[in-house]
Design brief:
binds 5'-deoxyadenosine; five-stranded mixed barrel; binds iron/sulfur cluster; 33% helix; alpha/beta; six-stranded parallel β-sheet; 454 residues; globular; single chain; 3 domains; pyruvate-formate lyase- activating enzyme; OB fold (Dihydrolipoamide Acetyltransferase, E2P); Rossmann fold
Length: 454
């Protein structure tokens, strides 16, 4: 019998990627096999993101491409889930314009997917099932992980911060943390299966507050903070690299900063979104910190870990942003000297407070500022890249390079991509690599055979 096939198309952040691993795991448990081409799969799940307008647009573009495959094979099943589905406006659009969608579910009932899917597959029903709020986090769901040697571990869901531009608190609900024992158990299982690197995930990991489930022998008691969780994960044998994202500056504690010194497996790297350099804008964004506080955090981080790599998210063109406000962002970016920065043009999100702000910025000004900011960021990166030249550093080899099939690709501790020649047997290993060519956006190296200092 030919097995039926599936594909999951993921839009958006690592949280969505992690959810897609669960969906893939569920489909494999139901007997489906992976098909690399989404238009050819018998079942296609589109996991949507609504953080910015272009993610919405890309989703509708991909969904449109499924019209023909559906007409050629009406037996195929199209499922849509994720953040966009928590907004009624998108459900209405799907109903009106995309009749080939068979199943719609949201962020709060992902664990119900097998049941909903079985009804669609067996009864040939169309189902739209969206829950308004999240319940306790479902545990022990299957997952088909992308790599055997590195894994995402979700530690919490949701966000309580209500930054005025952001849709996430409305689509993902309030913060809910997993029990620390459950997180630790997952990390131990991954380590036993050969995973070397884990990325702890949450919208705001710094406000993790897991309640101990009281299991016997647990190192946790009562309420556990993120730093405490990290210290226990650091002890798990076999885990050589720990990363986390995303951090909110308002909740970055001294105890957590200290971990960069004391936890030997914590990568010397942090993603700390600043969003803007102007205090007036930060206030209107409801970020609960000012630029001085942010810079103080950077100073503390560099004191605890002098060579820490720092990355950030920045929004340009937030409503009411003046040229002076924008220049404050440029100033802050230059002061920090980011290793990398993800820059976004502000896009109005329906239902957020900033949607109602009257002083929206014209598109051409937003684009002009965006380009000027990129120029500054790139020149900093150009300087930083030079520091990599001839350095020897451990690289986790992840696979074959996407840009050159005859090369391998891996990541440094600072999360920089390095391409290197080598045998595929290196994939999954952490090897010392000497950087032979350091360009602004790409590093090239070769496995280093000489002596290293550990
Ligand atoms: N417009 C532009 N960027 C946004 N982000 C979140 N909401 C918006 C929006 N409405 C950015 C923030 C956040 C990142 C994940 O996406 O910088 O940190
Ligand atoms: Fe959105 Fe702010 Fe929550 Fe991040 S912290 S998910 S930007 S509301």
């Amino acid at each position: 019998m030919i097995k039926k096939t599936y594909n999951v198309v993921t839009f958006g952040c690592q949280m969505n990627e992690r959810d897609s691993e669960t969906i893939a795991g569920m489909l494999e448990n139901m007997g489906y096999t992976y098909c690399p081409e989404f238009k050819e799969a018998d079942v296609c799940v589109l996991n949507t993101c609504s953080v910015r307008e272009n993610a919405d647009k890309r989703f509708f573009g991909v969904l449109g491409q499924l019209k023909n495959p559906h007409e050629q094979n009406p037996g195929r099943i199209t499922c849509v889930c994720g953040c966009m589905m928590q907004q009624q406006v998108h459900i209405d659009t799907l109903k009106a314009k995309y009749p080939w969608v068979d199943l719609v579910f949201g962020t709060h009932n992902l664990h119900e997917f097998p049941k909903l899917f079985a009804n669609v597959a067996e009864q040939h029903e169309k189902i739209i099932d969206i829950w308004k709020d999240g319940t306790a986090l479902a545990e022990d769901l299957p997952a088909k992980r992308e790599y055997p040697f590195k894994a995402y571990v979700s530690i919490m869901q949701g966000c309580n911060n209500f930054c005025t531009y952001c849709i996430v608190p409305y689509t993902r609900g309030r913060e809910r943390s997993r029990a620390p024992e459950k997180v630790l158990e997952e990390v131990k299982c991954l380590a036993a299966a050969g995973t070397k690197e884990i990325m702890l995930l949450g919208q705001n990991v710094n406000s993790y507050a897991g309640i101990s489930d009281g299991s016997e022998g647990s190192p946790f008691y009562g309420k556990t903070g993120f730093a405490q969780l990290l210290k226990e994960i650091d002890k798990v044998e076999g885990i050589e690299r720990i990363r986390f994202m995303t951090s909110h500056p308002k909740d970055l504690s001294d105890e957590l900063i200290e971990c960069f010194d004391s936890c030997s497996h914590l990568c010397r790297q942090i993603h700390l979104p600043v969003q803007a350099g102007s205090d007036r804008v930060l206030k209107r964004m409801n970020r609960h910190y000012d630029s001085a506080h942010y810079l103080q955090l950077i100073e503390k981080l560099r004191k605890a870990c002098p060579d820490i790599a720092i990355s950030t998210d920045i929004i340009v063109g937030f409503p009411g942003e003046t040229e002076d406000d924008f220049m404050s962002t440029i100033e802050l970016v230059s002061k920090v000297g980011y290793d990398s920065a993800f820059t976004f043009i502000y896009s109005v999100r329906h239902g957020t407070p900033a949607e109602k702000y009257e002083d929206q910025i014209p598109e051409e000004i937003k684009h002009d500022r965006f380009n000027r900011l990129l120029d500054v960021i790139h020149s900093i990166q150009e300087e930083k890249a030079k520091l990599y030249q001839d350095a020897v550093m451990p690289v986790l080899v992840e696979g074959v390079s996407k840009t050159n099939g005859s090369m391998l690709t891996g990541r440094t501790e600072s999360n920089k991509v390095v391409d290197l020649p080598g045998d595929k047997t290196l994939i999954g290993q952490i090897v010392p690599v000497k950087i032979t060519k350091a360009q602004t956006f790409s590093l090239y190296g070769e496995v280093y055979k000489g002596e290293t200092n550990g």
